[in-house]
Design goal:
By secondary structure, the chain is an alpha/beta fold. It has two domains: 222 residues, Aspartate Aminotransferase, domain 1; 247 residues, Type I PLP-dependent aspartate aminotransferase-like (Major domain) (Aspartate Aminotransferase, domain 2). It contains 18 helices and 15 strands. It has a seven-stranded mixed β-sheet, with helices on both faces. Strand 14 and strand 15 form a beta hairpin. Helix 2 packs antiparallel against helix 3, helix 6 packs parallel to helix 13 and helix 10 runs parallel beside helix 11. The chain is globular. About 4% of the residues have low confidence.
């Protein structure tokens, strides 16, 4: 019989979690079941996901920032279908394909004029890996400088520069020529750059973990120091780029001129993985420096037709539907609406963000009852409070959100750039109600803590051989925290 995808999906839908439990990642399945995130979504459109009963879920996660244009955008779907119908040659490798040239031309028009060359790859972590190689080749230096708390990917080079011990645990040793400074610590940055052995300062203009960025001129002064000491600046725009922060690129908020930009996620249109390295022509030529080095850095699927078409269609949608402008406008409304809740909910420490990349940070409240409950919860697990908020957002209001990082009392929202005031108002109202529920400590607190404790005991028993099954992770919160790549 010929392959029938529609029938396969129709007959097997609902087996999702059992299949993953058997053949993929049972720890993730356990985490999703603990928290009630084990929903089966059967359809997606725009800013919404839908289950088999037809219930709609507001997607304020956007696949970690992949779906800036919303899910299953008709213009991008049409472009993919047209590409398949053309029967074009694809990945010949020993040729120069038209579509990759067209996407390079279109993407560079959205970048600063001093960036004149592009390398295409498949993902954000691959783009970071390539950027590290480019910087080393161009400068003849080996050290890479990044920021504490940063996230740049999970392959070895990008993981080496990532500032998260949780992701690095068990995978060392890493690249030795890596140093990190605290965001805003200009003195530490200068001390490292003065040694003139740093190839590049790699940073996310708006950090994915926690949505942190400087309130002062740290970036502009850092740029001046890099120029003074011959260090390249690499802006990781994998999540913050493509309109996410209300501008095409997050570095534009500080008028920076990076030497290299890494791009991925939403460049895919939400369909075919697509990453890119944008750089100065002089840097590019230091990598591909001779005829025998014409393919010294390459990526088999990097310039494939479907990815290139998705990128072209994405750029067109972002511009013609004015989604960058909408990101700035809706982001401001969300920030204002959420910040207004601080007067009502003492749990909220700060609401911060740019465009539609927003974090809500919590802190210990002053009221005695809430204070005691807060401390009890943090003794059980430092990262549980934020889950106490995102769980009812999903279960009661059908809104998908995420914890901003490991051991953080921070919720992060990444809505698609197509949202309207309807979604903004709905989220603010739902968030308000969810925080009111948290005030009814210790009810929700003890329920979540009890589930966590039972799962951990079960996991330990199984690891010790005292029972069958798959077990549970010792820190299940990791799967619900921010994993941008």
């Amino acid at each position: 019989m010929p392959f029938d995808l529609k029938n396969l999906v129709a007959t097997r839908m609902g087996e999702n979690y059992e299949l993953h439990n058997q053949h993929l990642n049972p720890m993730l399945v356990e985490v999703l079941r603990i928290t009630g995130f084990d929903r089966v979504y059967v359809r997606a459109e725009g800013a919404y996901l839908y289950d088999a009963a037809g219930h709609e879920y507001l997607d304020f996660l956007s696949g970690y920032g992949v779906f800036n244009m919303g899910r299953n955008h008709p213009a991008i779907k049409k472009a993919i279908q047209e590409t398949l119908d053309l029967d074009l040659p694809n990945m010949v490798q020993l040729d120069c394909s038209l579509l990759s040239g067209l996407l390079a031309e279109a993407l560079l028009k959205k970048a600063p004029a001093h960036l004149e060359a592009i390398f295409f790859c498949n993902s954000g972590t691959e783009a970071v890996e390539g950027a590290i190689k480019f910087a080393r080749a161009a400068t003849g230096r080996s050290k890479i400088l990044s920021l504490k708390g940063c996230y740049h990917g999970l392959s070895y080079g990008s993981l080496s520069v990532t500032g998260s011990a949780n992701f690095q645990e068990g995978f060392g040793p890493f690249l030795v020529d890596v140093a990190r400074v605290r965001l805003g610590d200009l003195n530490a940055l200068e001390r490292l750059l003065e040694k003139r052995d740093v190839a590049a300062f790699l940073f996310e203009p708006v950090q994915g973990k926690g949505v942190n960025f400087p309130a002062d001129d740290f970036y502009t002064k850092a740029e001046a120091l890099c120029r003074l000491h011959g260090t390249l600046m690499i802006c990781d725009e994998i999540q913050s780029g493509m309109g996410r922060t209300g501008k095409w690129w997050a570095f534009q908020h500080w008028n920076l001129e990076p030497d290299i930009i890494t791009v991925a996620k939403s460049l895919s249109g939400g369909f075919v993985p697509c990453g890119a390295i944008l750089t100065r022509r002089t840097i590019y030529q230091k990598v591909f420096s001779r005829l025998d080095r014409a393919v010294v850095h390459s990526s088999t699927f990097g310039r494939n037709n479907l990815a290139m078409v998705c990128g072209l269609a994405t750029l067109d949608v972002l511009e013609n539907e004015k989604l960058i402008e909408n990101s700035a406008m809706m982001g401001q409304k969300l920030l204002e609406g959420l910040d207004a809740l601080r007067a009502k909910h003492s749990l909220i420490r700060e609401v911060r963000g740019k465009g539609l990349m927003i974090a809500i940070e919590f802190h210990e409240p002053p009221q005695l009852g809430l204070k005691l409950a807060w401390r009890l919860l943090h003794r059980i697990d430092h990262g549980l409070f934020a889950q106490l908020v995102i769980v009812p957002l999903l279960s009661r209001h059908r809104i998908l959100t995420q914890v901003a990082g490991h051991n953080m009392d921070v919720i992060k929202i990444l809505p698609p750039l197509i949202i309207t005031e309807k979604e903004v108002n709905y989220f603010v109202h739902a968030f308000d109600e969810s925080l009111q529920g948290c005030r009814r400590f210790p009810g929700p607190l003890l329920e979540l803590a009890r589930n966590t404790a039972l799962r951990r005991v079960k996991g330990k028993n199984q690891l010790n051989g005292s029972g069958p099954g798959k077990g549970a992770p010792s820190k299940h919160k990791a799967a619900l925290s921010d994993r941008p790549n």
